[in-house]
Structures are given as structure tokens and as C-alpha cells.
Amino acid sequence: MSDNFKNLDELFFNYFDDEYYWYIDFSSSEKPVYFSNSVERVTGYKPEELQMMRGKGKEIVYDDDIKRIRKTVDDFKNDAAQSKLQIEFRIKRKDGKLIWVKEEMFAERNSDGELVKFFGKVTDISKYKEKEETLNKKIEELKQINSSKDQFISILSHDLRAPFTSILGFSEILLNEPNISDKEKAEYLSYINDSSQNQLQLINYLLDYSRLQTGRLKIEPQRVQAQNVVFNCVSSLTGNAIRKSIDIKVDIPESIYVEADERLFNQVIINLLSNAIKFSYEETTIEINANVFNDKFIEFVVKDQGIGISEENKDKLFQIGKMFSTEGTKGEKGTGLGLALVKQIVEKHGGELWFYSSPSEGSEFHFTIPSSTNTILIVKSEAEEREELVNLLKSLYPSYKIISAENGYDAMGIILKQIPSLVITDHEMPLMTGRQLVQTLKRENSNLNIPIIVLLKEESDEVKKAYQEYGIKTINANPLDTSQLQEKLDESLVY
Q: Cα separation of 22 and 16, whole Å?
């Protein structure tokens, strides 16, 4: 090895882990090749191993790159005007790992342009290549998104204009034809109303989708009873179902609560149910059920016996740029935007949406929403007694979250916002008694169905009867019988 190369190796060996140097002396008849010691850190091979491999014609360059690299290097060697070359390729490390490297070659030539010395630097650029690949994928994704948006705007502009044809056409007839019968007027007004409703729904979908995409629509999760939301959705769609003699069956336990933005969760159910009705045959059944998916999520399923989805259209579902519209079994119109919105809402909640469908056999849509932690609220004014009861319940029900409030007013805010699984409250409290708390809760939300246990320090038939009228359980708390309390809790709590 030349002295210059030894000095070079000593200079760089301890400072650069991701590169090595090589040197060829063409002035020698043997044309020996030297490698810096750092070559082992990049390739896994010792300098002497690479020298032996070269002598046997073996290569560490990746097979797919060899032909390109050889031609590039040969052209460089034969071009007397060139003194520097930079190339990128892949090599096979000794451990079998494939890495990307950048090689910079420098040629020292005599007056005739012939090579005298040839040396270079090889740098491991795998990390940069990975970043480059990630960026290229991101660029491609953004191009596809941009293309999808262009297609979406094209589809949307058509769908936004279409309903106005009916609205303007029928309204013009109503304005200009004085001899129209009442029956025809009612029919035309019905067409105008349907078109207006579809237009309003489309605009609402579009606004919500846009806000979700840009982050302007803030999701505000709270504890929501799933059964109550679903029943409300079914009620709002009962008219549509009756017109097609469709029976909607709901199988959702009262005990299931989710952590969701109630308005958006409601929109998910409405969209999936309205689609199920739209594409179901007359006199069929739609099922909606929910159950525990895992320790973090609840799974909901909406199943119909409708026309199903063709293989061609399955890949288009949920994609804005590939939106398609299929008429319902009675000619109902739609844009396909509703399902894209549903997917956005579910994913913004951290859940997933998927489906199974076969043509003429119906569809079933599944989605997951975070489950809400079961919570017990203790309402007690005495801090020491409150802390003792909190610790007791934590030991008895470790899977439950135990929270507390020191008066009825604080408890009201917690109950209406968090909807606990159960409330334990004293009867006698300052500012608001347990009875007043119950009455206020019933007045504020008559549908609120939370089990409540009232602790009585002084038993009174009149007080007990007043609570019983509301379906409230009472326990003598002077002294508090722990076993009796647990028995009442076990009766009230659903595991």
C-alpha cells in the first residue's frame, strides 16, 4: 500500500463508519487494489477478503446492477477527458444484507490520457435511499389524492346540478299551469321536496367531509350509550323502512357505551342504515348489532338482504376519486359520498370500517368505535368518608374507574357529561339532597337510565318510598354494611 493511502486510511478510519476508500496503482504491472480498513464496517468483508475475491473474479455488486456499473466504469476509464465519476448501486454485504452505496471515482492520467492511478470513496447511503423512497411514495400518494380530488370535483359538479333540473322543471310547471289538479300539484311538490332534501344532504356531507379532511371539524368524544343512539336513528328512518315493508332488528345491550362524538356517531349509523334500506328488497330484514370487539373497541354490524355490491364496485367504495352511484331497489338516488364520510368519521375515532358483500345476497358493514370505560361516581360531602368509599370500590371493582364529587351540583355536571355506569350518593348533603339530585337528573334528561344507590344515615319509610318511586335503591349507611353494598352493586352493574 502506498504511503499516501496509508495516511489517508489513518486519517479517516476512526471518523467515518459509513464509508471506505480504495486505490488501484496502474503503474504497477500487477495493478494491485488496496482497501481502507473501514471497508469491513460497510461491507462486512476484511480488505484481504475483498482482494482475494477480486482475484477470483467475484463481485459484491448486486447482480441486477453489475452490467450497468461495468459499462459506466469502462466508459469512464476509456474517456481521457474524464477525471471524476459518481455512481449509485447496490452491494451484497457479507451477512447477506443488501445496501445502497454511492461511489465517487477519481482518475489520475498521464499526458497521453492513460490511467496511472485510480482511487475512490464508497459511502453507505441506505438511510438516504429509504428516506428518498418514502418521499417518492408520499409524492405519488399526493399525486393520486390530487387526481382523486379533480375527479371528485367533476362528479360533484354534476351531482350538485342534477337535482335543480327537477326542482326548476316542476316549479315552472306549478307557476305556469293554472289548471293542474290538486293531485298533480301534490305529486310535483313531492318531487321538489325530495330533490331539495337530497341536495341538502349532499351539501351537508360535503361540508362535514371537507371539515374532517382539513381538521376544522373538532371531534368531541364523550360517553355515549350505543343502544339509545341506534334506536333514535332507527326512529328517524322508520318512514323509509315502512314504505318498503322492511323490518329493522336491533340487538345492542344496554350496557354498551362508546367514547364518541355523539353527532358524528349518529351520522355513521344513519348513513349505514339508510344505505341498507335503500338497497334492500321489499319485505326483508335489516339487522344492526353491537358487541365487545376487544378490550378497547366495540364492533357494530349493519346487515341487509339487498342487492349487494359487485366485485367491480367493491374497490371503489370509500374512495372519493372513484365515487359511483347505484340506484336503490325503488329507484332511490345517492352519491356515494356518505360512505366516504362514514369511513373518515370512524377512522378519526381510531376505529376501522370493513364490509362483506355478494351480489343479490346483501351486504354487512362492520365498524369499530372506542369503548367507554365503566365508571362509578361517589357523591359524598365528607372528604374522609368519600376517600374510604373510593378505596373500597377500587379494591372490589378494579376494572372500573372510580370518581367522586363532594356535592350534588358537581355530580350533575359529571353525570350529564360522562354518564357513569352507576352513582352512589348520600341522601343528606349540603346545597342539594340525594332526592333533589335524582329529581333534577330526571328533569334534565328523562331518558337517562343510570343505576343509583342512595346511602341513608337515618332510615325513614317516607324517604325510602320516595326513592322507590324513581326505581332507586337505598342502603342504611349508619353503619355501612359493606357486604350489603357489594350485593346492591353486583345487582346494578353489568360486567
A: 14
